[in-house]
Design goal:
By secondary structure, the chain is α+β, with helices and mostly antiparallel strands. Helices cover 16% and strands 25% of the residues.
């Protein structure tokens, strides 16, 4: 897929150069302070913060935000307001923008989202996470028991920065065979503050897990993970058990802050850790 926008010119995300002392400090605030608050308090604070972007005055944030974050002045031309609206009436409308036409790709397997590939490797090689004195394996992210995902499967975690497109799409043609909601925390997602384990928030945060069985009988596991200021994670109305999905069909969206994890039967063929990926790019 050809990428034309200069917005994608820095795939390594220079924020990874955050000094270690600052990363440790941010991690302490996220895990030890914010992360120890009861989940209902985290959620109320997040909902309050997110509600600001539903106010009519917030639409005036859009132009300055575009100016600060995108060198491509025509970036917004490929998107439209959500829910059939004729214009972006709030900043949340911009945040939940939709493609005017979804990307096309002849590949059988595509990336489901846009963002920084902050972790990648085989399931058997992934580190465990220590969450509130509880050791958790990578299968925990997907709400499964150890060994339920084949060890040769590839684990990927794509971090969606605030400026990224925040809808998740099907990576493959197939049938939805599992939908699971896991309540949880809403700790900070930014991977550069968890340098030893960038996927730590995915082990403990609220998430929706969706499994898609492809035409070969292989299962593609998706985990849509929320973070601070997430008002909600909303699944597409067509997402239900037994439903058929086509590659690049929309699965769901975030209202601010997110990351998307996937366990797939094949490895990414064209991208490695710290690469930037887009919806519809060949996986």
């Amino acid at each position: 897929m050809h990428v034309s926008s200069a917005y994608y010119s820095d795939p390594t995300f220079t924020v990874f150069k955050v000094p270690n002392w600052r990363a440790y400090f941010y991690k302490f605030l996220s895990i030890n302070i914010w992360g120890n608050l009861p989940s209902p308090i985290q959620r109320r604070a997040s909902n309050w913060y997110a509600s600001v972007y539903d106010k009519p005055f917030s639409k005036y944030f859009i132009k300055p935000y575009l100016w600060m974050n995108y060198s491509d002045h025509k970036y917004l031309d490929k998107f439209q307001p959500p829910n059939g609206k004729s214009q972006f009436a709030t900043f949340q409308d911009f945040f939940t923008r939709q493609f005017k036409s979804v990307p096309e790709n002849s590949s059988d397997w595509v990336w489901p989202c846009e963002g920084l590939l902050c972790e990648e490797g085989e399931i058997k090689d992934m580190e465990v996470a220590q969450v509130k004195c509880d050791t958790r394996k990578v299968e925990t992210v997907f709400g499964l028991e150890e060994g339920e995902i084949p060890s040769h499967y590839s684990f990927t975690n794509v971090f969606l920065h605030n400026k990224n497109y925040h809808r998740i799409h099907a990576p493959v043609d197939g049938t939805i065979v599992r939908i699971q909601h896991i309540p949880g925390d809403l700790v900070v997602l930014r991977p550069w503050i968890y340098k030893q384990n960038p996927s730590l928030p995915a082990f403990r945060n609220e998430r929706y897990n969706i499994d898609i069985e492809d035409k070969y009988g292989e299962i593609w596991h998706l985990s849509i993970v929320g973070g601070p200021a997430v008002g909600t994670i909303e699944l597409n109305s067509l997402v239900r058990l037994g439903a058929k999905v086509k590659k690049v069909n929309e699965i769901g969206l975030f209202y601010l802050g997110s990351t998307c994890c996937m366990a797939a039967p094949i490895k990414p063929r064209f991208h490695r850790k710290n690469n930037f990926v887009e919806v519809g790019m060949s996986y």
